[in-house]
Give the backbone structure.
Amino acid sequence: MLFVMKCLLLLAISGVLRGQGAPPVVTALPVKLPPSVAERLSPDDRVLFDKLMRVGLEAAWAAVTSEGFPQCFINELHPLNTGRRMVGRARTIRYLPNRKDLRDKTYSQGPQLNYRSAEEAQPGDVLVFDAGGETHSTVSGAITTTRLVMRGGSGMLVDGCMRDVPDLAAMPISIYLRCGHASSVSPILMSLDYQVPVRIGSVTVIPGDILIGEDHGVLVIPSSIVDKVLDKAMAHDEQEEFQRYLLLHGEPIYGVYPELNEANRKKFEEFKKQKK
Amino acid sequence: MLFVMKCLLLLAISGVLRGQGAPPVVTALPVKLPPSVAERLSPDDRVLFDKLMRVGLEAAWAAVTSEGFPQCFINELHPLNTGRRMVGRARTIRYLPNRKDLRDKTYSQGPQLNYRSAEEAQPGDVLVFDAGGETHSTVSGAITTTRLVMRGGSGMLVDGCMRDVPDLAAMPISIYLRCGHASSVSPILMSLDYQVPVRIGSVTVIPGDILIGEDHGVLVIPSSIVDKVLDKAMAHDEQEEFQRYLLLHGEPIYGVYPELNEANRKKFEEFKKQKK
Amino acid sequence: MLFVMKCLLLLAISGVLRGQGAPPVVTALPVKLPPSVAERLSPDDRVLFDKLMRVGLEAAWAAVTSEGFPQCFINELHPLNTGRRMVGRARTIRYLPNRKDLRDKTYSQGPQLNYRSAEEAQPGDVLVFDAGGETHSTVSGAITTTRLVMRGGSGMLVDGCMRDVPDLAAMPISIYLRCGHASSVSPILMSLDYQVPVRIGSVTVIPGDILIGEDHGVLVIPSSIVDKVLDKAMAHDEQEEFQRYLLLHGEPIYGVYPELNEANRKKFEEFKKQKK
Amino acid sequence: MLFVMKCLLLLAISGVLRGQGAPPVVTALPVKLPPSVAERLSPDDRVLFDKLMRVGLEAAWAAVTSEGFPQCFINELHPLNTGRRMVGRARTIRYLPNRKDLRDKTYSQGPQLNYRSAEEAQPGDVLVFDAGGETHSTVSGAITTTRLVMRGGSGMLVDGCMRDVPDLAAMPISIYLRCGHASSVSPILMSLDYQVPVRIGSVTVIPGDILIGEDHGVLVIPSSIVDKVLDKAMAHDEQEEFQRYLLLHGEPIYGVYPELNEANRKKFEEFKKQKK
Amino acid sequence: MLFVMKCLLLLAISGVLRGQGAPPVVTALPVKLPPSVAERLSPDDRVLFDKLMRVGLEAAWAAVTSEGFPQCFINELHPLNTGRRMVGRARTIRYLPNRKDLRDKTYSQGPQLNYRSAEEAQPGDVLVFDAGGETHSTVSGAITTTRLVMRGGSGMLVDGCMRDVPDLAAMPISIYLRCGHASSVSPILMSLDYQVPVRIGSVTVIPGDILIGEDHGVLVIPSSIVDKVLDKAMAHDEQEEFQRYLLLHGEPIYGVYPELNEANRKKFEEFKKQKK
Amino acid sequence: MLFVMKCLLLLAISGVLRGQGAPPVVTALPVKLPPSVAERLSPDDRVLFDKLMRVGLEAAWAAVTSEGFPQCFINELHPLNTGRRMVGRARTIRYLPNRKDLRDKTYSQGPQLNYRSAEEAQPGDVLVFDAGGETHSTVSGAITTTRLVMRGGSGMLVDGCMRDVPDLAAMPISIYLRCGHASSVSPILMSLDYQVPVRIGSVTVIPGDILIGEDHGVLVIPSSIVDKVLDKAMAHDEQEEFQRYLLLHGEPIYGVYPELNEANRKKFEEFKKQKK
């Protein structure tokens, strides 16, 4: 549901329902980008991220799926904080189980990829770590993530685990992970590949993908279709806003949802006109 | 523990312990039914639900078990919100993995059962969805649940997953589920049976069962024994209230719990008289 | 990170960064021992527990590991409350699946071990229950834990489950467990051994071990090395505090972390002098 | 692959390859229906079951999927014996966790459904037990299954477990299950519904479905499409037989599989003619 | 089912059914103790083990349960070989996750417990290793087990894993385990306690318990009730033998199983007389 | 244990033990390479593979670990056949969850990688498929594997699943996998990377690694250390052969294993001389 509209809708309803007691709350509070991200975004990204913060996640899921990408939602990880929304652009890193020969070769060629990815992150980036679901060794921690925050990083998506969890939870950044651990990377894992396709839960993420995360998971949107997805989804949101409005006025669900009946469809057309 | 008594007890203790620093908090805050439920209940149900909101969950478990129903507690699902108590009456729906022939036949006979069950819900009802633990396809979402709230629905118990999780978490309704997902129902599941016995976690739930849910799970009480269970459990709660009182005054656990010794039993009799 | 320092650091930064907007929050709020524990500790333990409340968990993990104890972190359990820190000394209890002959023999020799361990707990103790990961029968509940609180107990670490979860969550004590259940102990488990080595998740805990728990897990420190671990870890924390300070001023991660470069190492020496 | 053809093919190849050493074995031995089933089948079923015993499982999967039933393969259970093929017609039974009220009511209305389903089984039937994946209580055992064998029963598909496993493994019947246990049904489960749609693994099975099982799982074919599926699949098998023939003669995979190139397609047409 | 009787029964049936084709095989082949065990047993144990090799596992389960021990069957482990029966007397060893201090202390006091238990094993003993389900470090291997075989050891029950699996599978000994691994003990585990109660799967095993294992799991019989259990179970087996006999002659299950009807009960009495 | 020696040892023992009954079998039967592999190997590989077929897997594990590669054993997969030994050289393929954009791009650049890897396989190669543990979509099947067999391929290591399982099980090739399925690749997965480092279970495999598999798992040996590993391991095997010999003659384990005592060490030196 469009979050800006939610506020308008709630005001509208409160007038309509005056005298009947407050209507029940049926939508989450609107959320906004943390300043550490918002203030660093490019002008174009401000427009894009503003939409990403408002679009309904499920409407966007439907649009992505209808474009031919049904394997697009990650619900195997857990958010460190609830009540936030993560939006951003994927920057991917792949970890593998440690082995000395490969590790020595890779690490001699440059910094470990958790440092490098934090340092190279662009405003609005989400670091995406594929660690194969490992839960007994971490991929990164609070100090490296501090650098990510300073760079305008928006989030982390970790199919594995992180250390320094309480500090991470306090940061203005959204983090999804399997679980936490106190370990450093080295006992079990090593970073290997940078900006390659990776597997997170049951979804493939590639560099540049657009991500939207809520409490229950993260939607992966190929960047080539993001505009189309947002247009479709926001039109859908508008109808859902109206459907909610009808239900909050006591209408039965038949004729309202999932499809509006003839009479309600006309009302919806008027509703849309009034909003302009 | 009886929640109303909890308040009295805390007041009482605060007098007794004056001068010694505040006693530690050892009981959860009392919780109450949301207005969207409370205001719609029938007079009989107001009495019943009032007791269900106050009775100790563990005392009720012991009573249900002693009546011959040891498989009565569901701890395989997770509550969307902590610090709430769900009470209500089961209205069951069974989902199965999608197959075209059965789906076409069933859906041609009437609305999908998430819509129907929301529309037909009576005040205080809990929709109980058996989706076999499926975690990659949902059974329902926020708009349908808005209708449930408007009907006075009290909760949802989903052995599967739901979409629109942040909106659901904001609603005045208690929801237990495996996890969330952004998917619609259709890719994997279909609704099939309505008001039949279902399996939720490791417990059978039948239509009309009385449910009490806290953060750690949901107790299933056959409606035929609910009065007996409440009587037994509330008597038990009264003793536990007194046992807590003794412990908060520094008594050792031997002689207090699980059984009162002779001396404490006498004090308990006086305690009960004073309360009247 | 040292929690007292965190406050100083945040003040310092706020001065330095004046005019640039507030720096992002990158550390968790400091936490302190609940009065029910703090007021009962021996003078020696006050000193020890004060350090345990401030030391960085990950720094301590590194120190424990470097002392030859790499299997020292438990992340298989979940905290009942987030945002707390558990510190304490292990008092262990071992549960096994019920069998009548052994149960009768054991229970005839004295009280069940959840009662006994609560009663004998010393200020700052953490009860450690090895129930083999059992999730359908509890090991203890709120009333017994009330006694533990009155004794100055600091926490519970349960490889199994507990009943009365909302009450437990309200108590000034930290609890880690697999999940909750409403059951009593008896249908599936029995307590058997007291103050023996036990397995919690993938770590061996022995009586007297020092425990530090945060949201993501619990570090187990053999008591014989706790002073050495704290010294090492706190020195490490000081450097991390400085590294964070540099990053919050916009320095790139290279040269700052994981190792300070030559220039930054000199600044660190000055930083340490200024703090004295 | 058509099993009868396999034998012909192997003979053919052995001639062609004379002088070069034996070709590697690349197909499983043909299997046949046990006499206890074969001798009791109706004439129509003899024709049907003969095809079901010969058709390639993967070819049939492709045909079922292309008919609009992609959720048709159960690989969550394990066969008691390898090297067998199960074919048959589903007769379904649904178990739920035990509860006294429902059990008393149901069991007073007739025999438990494991007895009834064995007694009523028709030749070629497969008993399909949905026990929700329960692994600590069985649904049936060897004596009841002896009756099933005497009735001409062809197999059992159990999303749960069975007792008397060594005896079952010796019987001329194919059994798929989660695991075995020594328990009777009663401690945890009860039989409830007969000949209703059930969930086995991630597939819905309805009475009358046609089942084909190999070592790695069981294909579920709606009876309404079984003829179409067999025709499609057997045509496909014929091509695969030819593709294997080419590969065994040393041709590279390109041009042979998954699609035949122009030249090989012509050879295939001749191959088909020669077989007639 | 009594294995000796099985042979008689099959002979009997073959006469009765002459002219009708062979009856289906519905019982497993009888199995016997390997000579390495049988030849070393004491005279008393020969009598006992002979019964243990013949008694029906499920009948014995029912008897153990009716004696008040419902948690008596382990089905969480896998046998290395199928088609064997393990019988023996438990000799228990407890492993815990490695920690240097405890390991050094324990190992300085005597040999590791896998060596000691193999060396001290008595004929007919089963080594029972509780390794907490660990699957990435073994508890013992083929050479130590060779010594166990030479001592007359009958089996191993390992809640963890073993190395040298192919060699172990070739030995005349029954082994149940989680899985195999090539690792030695030392990277993750250490042996700690000898001849103490342990947890295997969901069952407590104590030294001296009598164990019967088939392909689907292991029954644990407290030694104090083993005679009673065998008497009860063997009487039950005799009835099941007769019930099978009736079913193999084509009788319907009603009236035969689970309870014999009046007419069949009389036939059973005669059947028992004839056998004497 | 060296397999060739096993035969000698068994002969030797049979002489020594004459008159005492046959010694128990304590070693697995020797296994050999299938002709389809053996006949195609290069002369150098014949020497290497001959050693790989004989070396003790656990001795090799110890050598690999001592060279600094402790994460070298895969026990998360299951062999299709027991009683075989897989040896070979890794040829790796990486699968990811399907997504249309990446799939179209990759598949337009050449054949799918299961075809390509089978076609390009060199004698003795093992195809190593990293499919992230996926169990509902396969990576390849019997026809493609037929080509692999014709190329002299030695095995397949699949962190995912395969179709046509009975045919695969009949082939002269060793296959390890999560489980089987009837599905083709396309519904869920796509092949993406060829000859890159991959994760199989908890081990990183790179192209060219040497693999040894037995029933319980697969050892991964970096090719750079294979000669050193074989030398170390075979020396170790020789000692284990002698230790077994002593135990089979009735010596106690102390003084024999894990270390030979002084007296036995001398006998071992003589034993080695006699063998030459």
Remarks:
- Chain E touches chain D through 36 residues (CB under 8 Å).
- The mean pLDDT of chain E is 93.
